[in-house]
Design a protein that fits this description.
The structure is a single chain. By secondary structure, the chain is an alpha+beta fold. The protein has a single domain, classed as Glutaredoxin. 36% of the residues lie in helices and 24% in strands. The chain has five helices and eleven strands; from the N terminus they run αβββββαβαβαββββα. Strands 1-2-11-10-5-6-7-3-4 form a nine-stranded mixed sheet, sandwiched between helices. It has a two-stranded antiparallel sheet with strand order 8-9. It is globular and about 50 Å long. The chain starts with a helix and ends with a helix. About 14% of the residues have low confidence.
């Protein structure tokens, strides 16, 4: 592993410790889902929604419980797996899923055009919105929730190298941060958390 990759992985480990400490400060860790109420800031952003090309902010989603996830459409494993797990949880939620929105924020906007992003998220669930922003808008939102990512532009024939943390954030209908997890395979726990969110 190169020095740059080692340093990046070290920052990810530090981030994991931050989340662990945040969860401990709330006194609740539930099967991989940590309570971050009062620890993380409210949802706030300005980006372009791929589904309809509209400029949207967090205010456009008030009244909906929100799941926030950072990724990119060319991701070979974590992103499609996470979105598939969330789509399964939304399906299990039944009609209440209409009270939810998943915001998939692309960290690779140079490749993730609006049409590509729209087509990608539409394969998972209708409640998933793809969001695309400028480099500064993405970096600002990632910093707000301590999400680490890196896009290294390589030779054209190889494409860029992309790394990102796998944190999934949950917000209530008022935009308050409530939970975070790095594991979405346990969809029963995810459904339980979603029910708590839509009931709050």
């Amino acid at each position: 592993m190169g020095r740059a990759n080692h340093a990046w992985m070290k920052r990810l480990a530090i981030l994991a410790c931050i989340f662990a400490l945040a969860a401990c400060s709330r006194g609740e860790v539930r099967r991989g889902t940590s309570d971050i109420s009062g620890v993380m800031p409210d949802l706030a952003f300005t980006m372009t929604r791929a589904n309809d090309g509209a400029t949207v902010t967090a205010d456009n989603y008030r009244g909906k419980a929100i799941i926030l996830y950072f990724g990119y459409t060319h991701c070979p494993d974590e992103c499609p797996t996470t979105l598939a797990n969330l789509a399964r949880a939304l399906g299990d939620l039944g009609p209440r899923a209409n009270q939810m929105r998943v915001l998939f924020v692309s960290i690779d906007p140079k490749r993730d055009t609006l049409p590509l992003l729209k087509a990608y998220v539409s394969t998972f669930a209708p409640q998933i919105d793809g969001l695309r922003g400028t480099d500064n808008q993405i970096a600002r939102l990632a910093r707000r929730y301590r999400v680490l990512y890196r896009v290294t532009r390589a030779a054209a024939e190889k494409g860029p190298e992309v790394m990102h943390s796998n944190s999934t954030f949950f917000f209530d209908s008022s935009g308050h941060a409530r939970f975070v997890t790095t594991r979405t395979a346990d969809t029963k726990t995810i459904v339980s958390d979603l029910r708590r969110l839509v009931a709050s």
